[in-house]
Write a sequence for this structure.
């Protein structure tokens, strides 16, 4: 049963943030709490990902193309509006694909990638709400290490900082949907049921283009 019926006005809620921010866990918890359908990334299906973490230059392009077409297939299912459609909570935006491509590809590779990405993105559109999870690069690294995924052993602090900076740059100009920022250094909806309930209530009340939970507005990088 949905605890927040007013969230039904959002047909697609996307959870975003760098590696280790808690996107997948929050997407599952939020979907269960509000009676929505989760749509989760499937990184384990990418045959190039483990090799990418060991050799980013050598396997970035193959890894990125696999994710591009995988995410396209996932988003096609919710791209067509339906009056009976259930709310979907995803642990990614389609736009993140280009963000990672800019971070990991060479200029020549990115130009080729962009020729494929742009027409797909134009067809798929944007989510109705983005919940952006923030944390410092050292905190993200500690979380990545604690979950012990073997192929993530190659992720280091420098890469996570570059990723945090890339997200900051992206959201500095993003206006495709309202963005609600959650400071996961100070607010813990993944570990505390009371914080999850507070997040749901905050999203129910949320209006406008920008919102914050877990820190003073001055402390959050709206970018």
């Amino acid at each position: 049963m949905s605890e927040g019926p007013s969230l039904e006005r959002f047909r697609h809620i996307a959870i975003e943030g760098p590696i280790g921010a808690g996107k997948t866990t929050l997407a599952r918890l939020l979907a269960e709490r509000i009676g929505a359908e989760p749509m989760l990334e499937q990184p384990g299906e990418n045959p190039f990902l483990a090799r990418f973490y060991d050799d980013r230059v050598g396997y970035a392009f193959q890894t990125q193309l696999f994710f591009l077409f995988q995410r396209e297939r996932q988003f096609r299912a919710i791209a067509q509006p339906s009056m009976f459609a259930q709310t979907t909570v995803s642990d990614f935006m389609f736009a993140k694909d280009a963000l990672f491509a800019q971070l990991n590809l060479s200029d020549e590779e990115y130009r080729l990638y962009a020729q494929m990405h742009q027409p797909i993105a134009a067809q798929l559109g944007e989510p109705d709400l983005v919940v952006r999870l923030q944390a410092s690069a050292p905190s993200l690294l500690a979380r990545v290490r604690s979950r012990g995924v073997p192929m993530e052993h190659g992720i280091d602090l420098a890469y996570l900082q570059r990723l945090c900076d890339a997200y900051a740059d992206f959201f500095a100009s993003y206006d495709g949907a309202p963005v609600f920022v959650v400071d996961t250094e100070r607010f813990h909806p993944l570990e505390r049921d009371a914080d999850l309930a507070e997040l749901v209530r905050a999203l129910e009340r949320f209006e406008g283009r920008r919102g914050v939970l877990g820190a003073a507005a001055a402390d959050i990088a709206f970018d």
